[in-house]
Amino acid sequence: MKKLFTQLALASLLIACGACSSEEGTPEENQTGRVFVKLENVIKPSTKTRTMENPKTEADVTEFHNGFIIFGTPKEAIRKHYEIVSDPAEANKNDHIVLLDELLEGKTFEGIPGDVTNVAIVANVTEDELNPEDFHNGTIRFHNDVLNHVIQLRNQYADNMSHVALYDMKMLQGVTGGAMSAALELRPMCARLEIPKITPGPDVVEYQVDGIYLAGFYNQMYISQISNRDFWTGPDYDTQDPSLALRNFYTGYPYLAHTGSDIRAVKETMTSGETTREVTAFYPSEEGKVWAFPFFGKYERRNDDQHYGLRLIVKVSHLKVYLLDDHGNRVPRDVTEYDRQQGIPEERAGIRYLNINGFVEDYHNTLAEPIQFYNGNVYTVQNFEITTQNLSDKIMPNDINVTLSVTVKPWIIKKVYPQI
């Protein structure tokens, strides 16, 4: 089964610098050269593993694995940097290393240059993304050099999504007593999509969910949070064999596909108006979990015919449905048998795809513009129904116009709805 997000939330950082300030509280030269740093609302890395993921809540706390503290000037030159490590064995490699335990308790840094006016922290990045040697040897000299480094989506998934990259930078401000301070809010540099369940619409009699895929996404992003269309990827939408294309593509992105043992069928009663019927709903295989996908937030209008933006595919099979005949009467159809009669190969008979190319917050507004995705938010899908009106034997055909509604909150939950 696929591993999913673990503990993630907002982290806050308080930094106080011994310094002088004017009566107006404007930062001036740091005459003491001392800076006090304390990390709050983060926890040390855990060794727990999960195969399914709990829905996110505001009580979840970010795991802090590693990172960098960067002290800069008004022109963003880096005057001092420190690598943050969680392993005590790494602490004595050089003078630019500080232990995470020290920052959790609070640590005073000596010898900070007087022209330092801002501070930043980048956390939970790999050496491939941001290498300590680039700081030590002078390759990284300015804050923009940091922001222009690229983080990978696969690393946001690593360690069960407890290793999500975090970042913030703030100016130091004068406070009472002649000190300097800054409060940093370390925010996740990715977003998260949660799907708690899938249900059938009134025209679906039988069906099976075979796979749920994030099928259009940015696989990397600059630390600056600026993306690039060259970073966007997805399976081959024009393929003649969608099942094969999905299987091949997701060997490289297993954390963006949920299939097989990730999916559980549950018989339950559904009431709509005065009608009650027994249906099959599909849930994550573990009780109370959700299917969760990391992604980089990037806004794209849905009428972009080149498919850029966030896309979602649900693969279904063993379909039996009701269709309207020429007289408006509902007639049953076994889709698998119908495909066989049309000469469709057995391995593709009865298979359809629900293609989602937009997400909205207002379920009842059919004209709603797609929402703008932001990193640091959790988007929770609501009212996710499979209906005959939005199924295709292709993946991402050009004429699709299906949206989901979501709710959102900053590492905070937004619910989203399928708008059919």
Can you tell me about this structure?
This protein has 420 residues and is mainly beta. It has helices spanning 100-105, 132-136, 143-147, 153-161, 242-249, 335-341, and strands spanning 11-18, 34-40, 42-43, 62-63, 67-72, 78-85, 97-99, 107-109, 118-123, 150-152, 166-171, 173-175, 179-188, 191-195, 199-200, 204-218, 220-222, 232-233, 257-259, 263-272, 275-284, 291-295, 311-324, 330-334, 352-356, 358-360, 377-381, 385-386, 391-392, 403-410, 412-416. The strands form seven sheets. Strands 1, 2, 5, 6, 7, 8, 9, 11, 12 and 13 form a ten-stranded mixed β-sheet that branches. Strands 16, 18, 19, 23, 24, 25 and 29 form a seven-stranded antiparallel β-sheet that branches. Strands 22-14-27-31-30-26 form a six-stranded mixed β-sheet. β20 and β21 (275-284) form a beta hairpin. The longest helix is centred in the middle third of the chain and has 9 residues, at 153-161. The model is unreliable at 1-12, 17-28 and 413-420 (pLDDT under 50).
Task: Give a brief description.
The protein is mainly beta. The protein contains six helices and 31 strands. The strands form seven sheets. Strands 1, 2, 5, 6, 7, 8, 9, 11, 12 and 13 form a ten-stranded mixed β-sheet that branches. Strands 16, 18, 19, 23, 24, 25 and 29 form a seven-stranded antiparallel β-sheet that branches. A six-stranded mixed β-sheet has the order 22-14-27-31-30-26.
